[in-house]
Amino acid sequence: MSREAGSSTPSTPEGPADLERLRQGDEAAWDEVVRAHGGKLLAVARRIVRDEHAAEDCVQNALVQAFLKIGDFQERAALATWLHRIVVNAALMMLRAQGRRAEQPLDDLLPAFDEYGHRVVESGPAPTSPEELAERAEAREIVERAIDALPDAFRVVLVLRDFEDLSTQEVADLLQLTPNAVKIRLHRARAALKTLIERPHRRAPERVPTPLVRRITGIVGRYMPLTITCQEFDGFIMDYLEGSLPERPRRLFEIHVLRCRECRTYLKRYKQTLALGHRICREDAEALPADAPPRLVAAIAKARAGRA
Question: Which fold has domain 16-101+286-307?
Fold first, then answer.
């Protein structure tokens, strides 16, 4: 996957006079738009459809749609934001048209818990933390490969919510899901991404017998009002990080973090995974093929001729 390196950002038409040029189908104005925003739009489309050529088709379709709908553009929003939403919709439509593909079961990538609700500890050497990975030259490649390995239903939610900064409600509307379903998929996608980044070749965890003291605390914990299990803690992570966890569960969550070393480490690395993925994807921009701007502008000109 190629990247633009050290290139200056082209100017983009944003003022009323520039927008009027776009509405008139001015090829020079649309060429400026393509060069200013095409790389970012291509990166967004590629993260959704996972194919370079399909992503280019998405961008072309999105720019033609943008030209046809430029009269409806509300100048209260930035042009880049408006184009971004159009390309996201084009990519989602293409993804649906492609149908389902063979995917790795997500459960193999999620935390495991024993019958007492304690986190299952994996045997073997400690995994590389996202914080350590961030300092390595191959960090971008590992993160992108991990994102691509997620099943579509979870990867798309992760990309839209965490990397494209759409709200939970906006993602729900785009994917025709409930907000709660989006939050569940997002948490599972984040947890799976953490696993894929830390252990790229991971298999199902090898269970280590639960120590007697943890079995006892697991049983007693069911009857103690100020205790939650690791499994319950895992279910609270999303709301806790979003600041929407009610006061009592929040207190129980924070008490558990202090008491449980495994969950404390897990939460730290969960947050590091989000920060690393967000940093890499926000910096991400595809280098447009040399023939792309003229080809994209030609597609817009063809749409203009067809509308005349």
Answer: Rna Polymerase Sigma Factor; Chain: A (1.10.1740)
